[in-house]
Design brief:
- By secondary structure, the protein is an alpha+beta fold.
- It has two domains: 80 residues, Beta-grasp domain (Ubiquitin-like (UB roll)); 76 residues, Orthogonal Bundle (DNA polymerase, domain 1), CATH 1.10.150.
- Strands 2-1-5-3-4 form a five-stranded mixed beta sheet, with helices on both faces.
- A hairpin with a 2-residue loop joins strand 3 and strand 4.
- Helix 2 runs antiparallel to helix 5.
- The protein is globular and about 55 Å long.
- Bound molecules: FE2/S2 (inorganic) cluster (FES) (2 copies).
């Protein structure tokens, strides 16, 4: 603890260890955006509803507006800035969103991309073809005000088929 109302936190964010001093009640989304300048994590509703603030915590999707920074102490966090390939190329889910024109204003996009990466990773390559109902069920946890979702559904399908092929070859997601 560094003062009466702040604590030292240490976590791995996008592969790098970061150390900070945060007020007890500072949200993880605010720590990422304000202290680490990782502004790709967007904040919409701040009530756990819209999904814009989704990040991976130890590989699982989490609403960073519902989590305190101190709760992330000792955890591994991945934000949208951390999903591209080591060579700088887009993650297949990012590329699918781009190629399928699955965004307009883009406010929701980091949350959709992060949650889709986690979803397809958990689903695995042997689960068979994705139905549209499955995709829409997955997407129901996030809100997009612009696209009408059709292109987002297409992007998830494209990413699922590319990642399924990659996983079947033993490649990294
Ligand atoms: Fe976190 Fe909307 S800002 S779910
Ligand atoms: Fe604008 Fe989804 S692209 S909110």
């Amino acid at each position: 603890m560094t003062s009466a109302d702040s604590r030292k936190v240490e976590m791995v964010v996008n592969g790098e260890t970061v150390v900070g001093s945060v007020p007890d009640r500072k949200l993880l989304c605010d720590f990422l955006r304000e202290d680490l300048s990782l502004t790709g994590t967007h904040v919409g509703c701040e009530q756990g509803v819209c999904g814009a603030c989704t990040v991976l915590v130890d590989g699982r999707p989490a609403r960073s507006c519902l989590m305190l920074a101190v709760q992330a102490h000792g955890r591994t966090i991945t934000t949208i800035e951390g999903v591209s390939r080591p060579d700088g190329s887009l993650h297949p889910v990012q590329r699918a969103f781009h190629e399928q024109h699955a965004l307009q204003c883009g406010f929701c996009t980091p949350g959709f991309v992060i949650s889709t990466i986690a979803y397809l990773d958990e689903r695995g390559p042997d689960a068979g073809p994705l139905s549209e109902d499955e995709v829409r069920e997955h997407l129901s946890g996030s809100v997009c005000r612009c696209t009408g979702y059709t292109n987002i559904v297409r992007a998830v399908h494209q990413a699922a088929s590319e990642l399924g092929a990659l996983q079947a070859e033993g490649g990294e997601l």
